[in-house]
Amino acid sequence: MERRLSSTVDDFSVGLVQMTCVLNQDQNREIAVQGVRSAVKNGARIVCLQELFSSQYFCQTEDVKCFDLAENIPGPSTELFSALAKELSVVIVVPIFEKRTAGLYHNSAAVIDSTGVLVGVYRKLHIPDDPQYFEKFYFTPGELGYGVFDTTVARIGILICWDQWYPEAARLTALEGAEIIFYPSAIGWLPTESQRDGLMQVDAWRTIQRSHAIANGVYVAAVNRVGQEGNPGLSFWGQSFVCDPCGQVIAEASENRSEVLVATCSRAILEEQRRAWPFLRDRRIDTYGPITKRFLDNLSKS
Predict the structure, then answer these.
(1) What does each C-alpha distance from 132 to 64, 154, 203, 259 come to in angstroms?
(2) CATH number at 11-301
(3) Among residues 21, 48, 51, 98, which one is catalytic?
(4) Which of 208, 237, 209, 241 is nearest to 223 (CA)?
(5) 51 carries an active-site annotation
(6) Exposure pattern of 229-258 as b/e (b: 16+ CB <10 Å)?
(7) Is the pLDDT at 2 greater than 50, yes or no?
(8) What percent of the chain has a predicted confidence (pLDDT) above 90?
(9) N or C: which end of the chain has fewer CB within 10 A?
(10) Catalytic member of 124, 135, 229, 243
(11) Which one from 21, 59, 161, 243 is the annotated catalytic residue?
């Protein structure tokens, strides 16, 4: 795909739409549309929706009927948000349960430029399989590589939820020139988890993403869903946030309600941080070959 230069304006604002999802897909899409409109009204030029925003988080069970929730690209969501992006002159990141063909599905995100054109698609690479996160039943890992896209506003990276725990994914996205990495997410507590464990998990979630910002000198924006889904189901903890290249949280949403978050990112700060802490300059790429091994035991060394 032909690359187009992003804006040279020093600052650009991003919006995150943190939602409580209902059972009806059309209603969720309408809630998201209103969230985008609100973000743009408050100055956002790029808006990111949460992971699998058009439905409740169906991966809590393994049920073949849930495949009926999937859609093609282009399809209902991309057509709706392409028209909205063109109307509002805004870049929109649209996470989608993608039906590629019969029996082949992905957890994806479509990037739609401010002209309404579909710039590209990222397909989630790291697929979890945990209690009430049975994603391997539904999603095939992506094969398009890490998602970095030139838009009219900025060069943006897209990673999805479980991807956020892997420093390799953030590093490779940054090495492709991303100025900001978006992490659409659906993460929450299990009913059996204690208050103590839950708070520890939220802290770990925030810390790992802030560390990606620091290590790579990029902005990071994580947008999570909020509310209870299932009976007793998962309690999604919200707390969507944006942090700067020094890892400082510059905007944060609540833990218990739908909310639209807007934050301003500065290319001058990005440049200043990379000059002060030139991690990309000082990387010893000649020593990193073993990173491609699963584990460095005696067998892998032979």
Answers:
(1) 15, 36, 21, 25
(2) 3.60.110.10
(3) 51
(4) 241
(5) yes
(6) beeebbbbbbbbbbbbbebebbbbbebeeb
(7) no
(8) 89
(9) C
(10) 124
(11) 161
